[in-house]
Amino acid sequence: MKVHRNFSGVIAPVLTPFGEDGSPDPDRFIEHAEWLLEDGCTALAPFGTTSEANSLGLDERMELLEELVDSGVDPAKLMPGTGSCSVADAAILTQHAVDLGCGGVLMLPPFYYKNPSEEGLFRFFAEVIDDVGDDRLRVYLYHIPPVAQVGFTLPLIERLRNEFPGVVVGLKDSSGDWSNMKSILDAFPGFELFPGSELYMLEGLRNGAAGVISATANVGARALRRLYDDWRGANADSMQEEISALRRTIQSFPVVPTMKALIAHYRQDEGWAEVRPPFTPLPKAEAERAIATLADQHGFRLDFAEAA
Amino acid sequence: MKVHRNFSGVIAPVLTPFGEDGSPDPDRFIEHAEWLLEDGCTALAPFGTTSEANSLGLDERMELLEELVDSGVDPAKLMPGTGSCSVADAAILTQHAVDLGCGGVLMLPPFYYKNPSEEGLFRFFAEVIDDVGDDRLRVYLYHIPPVAQVGFTLPLIERLRNEFPGVVVGLKDSSGDWSNMKSILDAFPGFELFPGSELYMLEGLRNGAAGVISATANVGARALRRLYDDWRGANADSMQEEISALRRTIQSFPVVPTMKALIAHYRQDEGWAEVRPPFTPLPKAEAERAIATLADQHGFRLDFAEAA
Questions:
Q1: Is the pTM of this model over 0.80?
Q2: A280·B110 Cβ contact <8 A
Q3: Can you state the angle between helices B236-250 and B255-267, rounded to 10 degrees?
Q4: How far apart are CA B157 and CA B43, in angstroms?
Q5: How far is B144 from chain A (nearest CA, A)?
Q6: Which of A26, B33, B114, B307 is most buried per CB count within 10 Å?
Q7: Do B81 and B303 meet the contact criterion of CB atoms below 8 Å apart?
Q8: Full pLDDT tens readout for chain B, 308 residues
């Protein structure tokens, strides 16, 4: 019995590299995206929290996505972030992604005003979906209350699914709260739920999750993919343990600057370490400590030559 | 002894009306802006929190500002909000406002990532100011931690003032915390501090504040202006008491939808009550209750004919 899913497996919210002038660097971006697909990602979610998407301009986001699609990456494998605090800009980004053939979009709720009503959030998504008005649109809700503060309750998810069947098809849950993920999985069979961290990957898969969308897939997709491909196997629990241990070490450092520093180190390409404010790059000594800690405790390294 | 100030007095964060198609309505917007200046505002701060600015698209904001300036409102009296989570879009909005001759801009910090470092916030503002690179630029920092979550500490304000003297010239303090306003006033004489609520207006003026930037100036600028013009007078305390009482009643309702409902009622123009998601319009019964409560308790009414 095969469940049809629009997206599944291991999805990386692609890091956004910057060039010397501070602009997003399409060459490094495309190279990284292609490497992620070789390293085990089944799909890519550019312009997530890890991608510093909200630190990019509207035009920068659209140009970078065009370059990615032009480079030959299959747009059906792309689930770009297209959320915005404004209906207008969310609709522009979403329409743009649909027009490029993207398999789905990952949408933050409007996150400026705090404690918005459920009715207000429903209307936000309804307006964006109506404005885009395109049968090809597939929306994944992006639930990340630790950052956005604003999130999705079960009744809101239910209302959006009922009102837009076949359009609102999934959710990335970065709440860090397994009981929330479990409630969604139990309430909405067939809804494509992706835990936002591999800490919940195996438990998620055992309860019907579609896969995982995780920041650290940017530097460790291969192990996540092995677990995804063999989660019913005898070694699943020990694979999950190793994966979780690595994740915990990475997140004991500032995650985005650290992953960029790791790629900069293993690619011998210092420019990769750049971030946009309000993030700051990892100081050199701290980057060296991260590289050494990960290597010592987890045998961690990135081999770009091997993958290429 | 007269202190030179770039902005001072009573400033309204102008409400943004919408047309039947849901777009910002320049005609109602301009009419309201002109009425505010007649009603006592010394200047206007379009695209604040009250203006639902973050619910507007980048292009919508720029077009509306152009229409306002084209209508003949003196741009020297305009302090539009130009903040964004991204350096790129904040620089676009800021440059646009400077090019239109706006007397200043009111800038939110990047508000997506929570607990950013002071260094990261400093770099954000430094990059925007450098990108704009225009001597005419005057930046007012927008401190509103109850909504944006991210705010400005005293050391950050000091560093920005020192690095950009004559550019970073003031701050709107919507913390609702008088002790924070007092600390800023004490630490930085000559810095143009505006409490973000008239509850702190008289106390602010007595301690060197430049005026007030308040949501409710959209429906009550006249009384604020009387206090501003006569805050050294014998009646100042009783004027403040009345002002505070009205403010407290207004903010016992959802402030933005309520003010729009008040204007819709007194202009006999239902369309004025529209808001953008995630806000929702005030239900009719609740609007009637607000109108009646304000009239009964404070003799509140808006007389547009009189002002025009």
A1: yes
A2: no
A3: 100
A4: 24
A5: 11
A6: B33
A7: no
A8: 456 899 999 999 999 999 989 999 999 999 999 999 999 999 999 999 999 999 999 999 999 999 999 999 999 999 999 999 999 999 999 999 999 999 999 999 999 999 999 999 999 999 999 999 999 999 999 999 999 999 999 999 999 999 999 999 999 999 999 999 999 999 999 999 999 999 999 999 999 999 999 999 999 999 999 999 999 999 999 999 999 999 999 999 999 999 999 999 999 999 999 999 999 999 999 999 999 999 999 999 998 875 44
Name the CA radius of gyration of chain B, rounded: 18
Q: Which domains does chain B have, with CATH numbers?
A: 9-234 (3.20.20.70)
Give CA separation, A220 vs A10, A35, A203, A228, B131, in Å.
Answer: 10, 11, 19, 13, 36
Q: Is A153 in CB contact (< 8 Å) with chain B?
A: no
Please give the C-alpha separations between residue A24 and each of A28, A65, A214, B219, in angstroms, as whole numbers: 9, 11, 21, 44
From B113, B146, B278, residue closest to A124, measured CB to CB: B278
- Residue B107 forms beta bridges with which residues? B141
Short-list B277, B39, B165, CA closest to A120: B277
Are B277 and A123 within 8 A, CB to CB?
A: yes
Residues of B in contact with A147 (CB under 8 A): 112-114
